[in-house]
């Protein structure tokens, strides 16, 4: 049941913050700022040095089973390339796993532990293979290679596919992606780049608020 709950939480929250940085301390600051702005689904990428430290710290700080609380957030791992890394992140406290590509063994590992796994896919073949292995949400990646119209195009032959575009999603096109049928969207550098350059993480909070509001308005249409 926990896996079902987590997938539903990701869908309802709609916006996933994909956080990269130069240190675990930096991405924890990013995560705190994003959560303060209303983004509740946080993906810490394994390109961050000592990323497991950030995942563990955030998993201890925030609770995923109390959506009404101020300390509510779901912490997951991203840029997971293999099952060994996936298991390490789950042991560190990650509650979902995101990969940039389709890796059968990683999917099977996450299924074994009943953890949501979102593999990156570009083709109908990749998506079909992911569905056959029981994947609930497919990461459409890189999203900037497509327009929102790709979602109904894919859902023509695969209406059961839940698609999360990541890469290239912005405030300018978020509404289009949601209107096209995106399950959720992943937001990366647009959320954090300016804040890092200026060393002002209040910018992350402000942008998070803007993304959450844009998602809310898109869902009301």
Helix-strand layout with pairing:
Blueprint: H1 2-13, E1 15-19, H2 24-36, E2 41-45, H3 51-61, E3 74-78, H4 83-92, E4 97-98, H5 104-112, E5 117-118, E6 120-121, H6 124-132, E7 138-140, H7 150-155, E8 163-165, H8 174-180, E9 185-187, H9 189-198, H10 202-220
Parallel strand pairs: 1-2, 1-9, 2-3, 4-5, 6-7, 7-8
Please provide a written account of the structure:
With 221 residues, the chain is an alpha/beta fold. The protein has a single domain, classed as Alpha-Beta Barrel (TIM Barrel), CATH 3.20.20.70. Helices cover 48% and strands 14% of the residues. The chain is built from ten helices and nine strands. The strands form three sheets. It has a four-stranded parallel beta sheet, with helices on both faces. A three-stranded parallel beta sheet has the order 6-7-8, with helices on one face. α8 packs parallel to α10. It is globular, with a radius of gyration of 16 Å. The two termini are 30 Å apart. The mean pLDDT is 96.
CATH arch. level architecture: Alpha-Beta Barrel
Mean pLDDT: 96
Q: Reading side by side through the largest sheet, how are the strands ordered?
A: 3-2-1-9
Largest sheet: 4 strands, parallel
Distance between the first and last residues' Cα:
30 Å
Number of separate domains: 1
Shape: globular
Low-confidence stretches: none
| CATH fold-type name | TIM Barrel
Total strand count, please? 9
Order of helices and strands: HEHEHEHEHEEHEHEHEHH
What would you call the structural class? Answer: alpha/beta
Name the beta content range. 5-15%
The rounded Rg comes to: 16 Å
CATH-level-4 superfamily name = Aldolase class I
SS element count, helices: 10
CATH top level is Alpha Beta
In helices, the fraction of residues equals 40-55%
């Amino acid at each position: 049941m926990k896996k079902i709950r987590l997938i539903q939480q990701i869908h309802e929250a709609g916006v996933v913050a994909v956080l990269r940085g130069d240190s675990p301390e930096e991405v924890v600051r990013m995560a705190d700022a994003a959560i303060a702005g209303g983004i509740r689904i946080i993906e810490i990428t394994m390109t961050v040095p000592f990323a497991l430290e950030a995942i563990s710290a955030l998993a201890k700080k925030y609770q995923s089973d109390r959506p009404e609380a101020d300390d509510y957030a779901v912490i997951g791992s991203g840029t997971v390339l293999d099952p060994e890394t996936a298991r390490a992140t789950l042991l560190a406290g990650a509650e979902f796993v995101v990969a940039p590509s389709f890796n059968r063994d990683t999917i099977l590992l996450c299924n074994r532990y009943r953890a949501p796994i979102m593999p990156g896919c570009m083709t109908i073949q990749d998506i079909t293979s992911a569905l056959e292995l029981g994947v609930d949400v497919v990461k459409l990646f890189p999203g900037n290679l497509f327009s929102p119209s790709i979602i109904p195009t894919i859902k023509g032959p695969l209406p059961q596919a839940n698609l999360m575009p990541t890469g290239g999603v912005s405030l300018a096109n978020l509404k289009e992606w949601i209107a096209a049928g995106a399950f959720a969207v992943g937001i990366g550098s647009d959320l954090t780049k300016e804040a890092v350059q200026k060393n002002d993480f209040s910018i992350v909070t402000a942008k998070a608020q803007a993304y959450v509001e844009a998602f809310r308005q898109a869902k009301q249409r």
